[in-house]
Batch of 3 targets.
Target 1
Amino acid sequence: MTLTVVGVDGGALPPGAAAAVAAAEVVAGAARHLAAVPLPDAAERVELGPVEPALAKLAGRRAVVLASGDPGFFGIVRLLRAHGHEPVVLPALSSVQQVFARLGRPWDDVAVVSAHGRALGPAVNVCRARPAVAVLTAPGAGPAEIGAALDGWPRTFVVAQDVGGPEERLTTLPAAEAPAREWGPPSVVLSLRDPAAVAARGWIAGGEPTPPPDGWALPDGAFEHRAGMVTKAEVRAVALARLGPRPGELVWDVGAGSGSVAVECARLGAAALAVERRSDDAGRIVANADRHGVEVRVVVGEAPAALAGLPAPDAVFVGGGGPGIVAAAAAAGPARVVVALAALDRVGPTRTVLGDAGYRVEGVQLSASRLAELPDGSVRLAATNPVTILWGTR
């Protein structure tokens, strides 16, 4: 028997949908969809709540499932296939398509993430990292919660409610104002760093992919720094490998200096937050982020006090400070902590602090020698200062 999934977007049903519904023995869907679509009198109606009992009523019968928009886009098609069904899909316009059509804005540069039935944190971190993000929301993961989590990241929201329905409404406001409002069940929250920006013509949906084309562990000269205060490329390469920055995560760079590690994490798709006590270095971090086309939130203050109240990280790099700062970073609960140490007398205490915090600790000493040209055109090896890298994983 045929199982047909029909998309509903508030307009006419997709081609072929009316015939599928008319021939159905059972029609399943949310209450609002069952009420919106004319159904044959003989068809059994199944209101979707718990999915498993509903799916059992579809087996072996001519069945139709009504779903919002395009059911193959963060929709029920995946679940049906996971249960062994091979449905015929008749899609309507997705809510994301409709929102951007209302705005008259292209959306091939927009990352689309879902917080519906999923943890909110990864969706928020994508909003922190990328200039244009559409979030599919759910109760408890709506504009108020997303706006509160974006404190410190200036964003403009377009909140789309009841897209395609009789109560459709689009509201544009600063993200910081969203927590103070009462919201019904919205369909989409659009988070924009610059609402007036026109994205460059791209070639892949969702914005430029990561990693960027020129790789990572960029040359030291790719960053403005104060008197050589930059995490060297060789050290950065190992630190990035152990931090594992990726989309949906937040990385702290504590004692950031030039912010080279934070910038590299952002280039790899993570949200990045740099903590630096010197205001002149904080300015360099902003300049370095701008230079590489990414966003790094900078907190000016001295750790560990400056770490209080910051959003919880998934990974932390400590490039400056003693065991007390490492302990405070570990107390924030990241899955991974990476520490770069030039002073040997800090290796043992730092290892102890990470172990006491519940991390499995490993480490390596890096002694790199770089090719350096001599006046006659030949080259020699010029040693850089050895650095010990410790990393803790939960």
Target 2
Amino acid sequence: MPRARRGPLAILFLTVFIDLVGFAIVLPLLPLYAERFGAGEMALGWLLAIFSLMQFLFAPLWGQLSDRIGRRPVILISLAGSTLSYVLFAVASTGHSLALLFASRTLGGIMGANIPVAQAYIADTTSAEDRAHGMGLIGAAFGLGFILGPALASALVPLGEIWPGIGAAVICGVNLLLAIRSLPEALPPENRHTGAATAGRLQTVVRSLALPAVRGLIVMFFLFTVAIAIWETTLPAFIDRRFGWLDHQVALIYVYAGVLMAFVQGFLIRRLRRRASEATLIAAGSAIATLGFVALALGIEPWMHLAALAIFAVGVGISSPSILGLLSRRTAVTEQGRILGVSQSFSSLARVIGPLLGYGLLGFSVTRVSDPATSPWDEAVPFFAAAVLALAVLSGALMLHSQRRPPE
């Protein structure tokens, strides 16, 4: 087993972090820009879903390609493509082109090979005892990227609609140059292979869901991720319609939520785990998240929304890692990669369904249920739907306590 190589891991962390910063600059502004460019609710849903859909379809192909030609060239291709996608976003912003916005997000999703290939890179360069720490670096890069990215968006958007896209393109372009110069190859030629995979994706999913110990947890993780995806993609439209905030204020809401969730996942969850089982934490977290979703929907004043967001962040920060932690504990050592890979596939699928469901409900409530000029609740319908999904996860978590469970 290789020992952890701190230099390459530090460079990989920086590569993933900077890439996530660029992604998070664009995310809060997409629904706001698209709505101004004439997009309806379903178009908004597809615009936000297309990235995850492309990742779902292409990430396994990039992973297989990295097994054949090495990790470094695939990461470099991904960064180059991502840079181009942000250039397209900048052009779309200044030209008010909905078609170019779709092209930007489609290309960004196709080129979104960084995360699965980065995980393979870590597996190549760490020993078994260091691997959990290495994988944790990706989670840390996610958290930090989703704090700094919206903060930069808030600073750039007052300069003009084009500048967030330019900023993201510059950041990703610099990241590409840094990786070209400093990121070494992790997979030696003798370890590469050209053989076909032993099982297709569908066969792998079916085999995984056939295991009673993990089936319920994968379903719970999927439902909870759909709920989170509804929140994170419809939030800009919700805030714009209910409070009428400016773009940079919307971006700061993501910063606020990111800091809260980083605190819960980086500090609080470890201490809670010492006192309670993961099954208990899933139940508690999903209950808090359900309350948070309802409070977000009902908060008619900005201070109410901020307070509700704190409740929501605590619930999400407790539930998500606890579901994955229990899933890992209930999986044999020889099956870890397959089961966790299936859970991530379901996560990608959930992030396709989430925005489509959220904006579909938003459009239905506005056009079919009531007059948006007289009803203050139309924009809250997606959050109520997310609360129902979180409640379903809570029901599943409570069932875990009534079952004869494998030791944790």
Target 3
Amino acid sequence: MKRPILRREFLKSAVAAAGGLSLAGCAASQRKPLTVTRGSPNEKLNIGIIGVNNRGKSNTEGVQSENIAALCDIDSWYLGEASQKFPKARTYQDWRKLLEQKDLDAVVISTADQVHALAAVMAMKLGKHVYCEKPLAHSVHEARVVRETYVACKGKIATQMGTQIHATDNYRRVVELVKGGAIGPVREVHVWCNRVGPGGDLPKGGHPVPEYLAWDLWLGPAPYRPYSPDYLPGNLTWNRYWDFGNGTLGDMGSHLIDLPFWALDLRQPTTVEAKGSPVSPVTNPRWLISTWEHPACGDRPAVRLTWYDADKRPESPPGIDLKAWGIGALFVGDDGKLLADYGKHILLPNKDYRGFKPPQVEIPSSAGHYVEWIQACKTGSPTLCNFDYSGMLIEHNLLGNVAYRVGRKLEWDAKNLKAIACPEADQYIRREYRKGWTL
């Protein structure tokens, strides 16, 4: 895509330096709580925005009630546009330099997936509150490191992953129905999304890098690839390649598997297996079915959770055509079934639930996904999609892609972050970074 440069001189001013990039230990574990964000709920946070367009623009709108003090984007055209709206904000093209800006209380990360974990970990180690677009990480190992970094700094920083659907009343009512025993003990769940994966190969190189684009910074820790307009802009462009994204499961699984993960208090699986279209070393699958086994926990029995995408679905319940549900989750209990998507839910079979009275509302309505995080930054109140919860969710989901890529069922040793007797899985559990980049 060819775009004009808003201001040609902007490219030079956008990369203002803000000190060195080295980190030693977790600053948040050694520092006192930020004075602006504890006991001062009426004061505004100084927020840095990493990624200002597409999802970044929406996320910025979600927090613009605060003071937008820094902006970062590898695209100087987008950066110039955002700077016109927030003229007092300092501007950067390298997010590592933005994070060194001393007066920042918090950051919002809306980059491509390969940068999420690196930026989030560095921000947390510097004692900054973090809101990060989903998925929280690009690999299983990254999800674990993000989670452990947050846990080490817990009580000093507020975190939230961008799964806005978690804040809806519909999800809350489904969670209450499952936890309240409306369909009895749940032993299996089916979750799906109708998005079709890409297939194909890497784009052809030979395109000149546009003047407004810091291509090497966009690549970040990913392997070097020649610039192609097929990668940018947008989400469903770069997301289709393993170098930068994790396909439908990595993306939409963050929203959809979130529901059973919450309702059933799922954590680490014991096994995971997957099948899909022929494996490509370059692009995500055109379709995928992945299954995780979760052990019994307390009064909850063992749970088998299965993910489907593209046109794949579980068997439809009587009287229901799941092909008509583009996204959804089907809870299968001993006494009935519960079918849900983002905005509605149905207890099945219908005849058994005539006159059914839902349980009393126990999970209060959310003030809003962004508001939850802002309030947490200022007062220490909880966020439901903090990096402990969301780190576990993303680690779980990305294991499905690992099983698909190695082509075998994995016995998962969660403590050691290893697939038992499957060394070929290591390269997908923990990815290598380009020289100069580290987690």
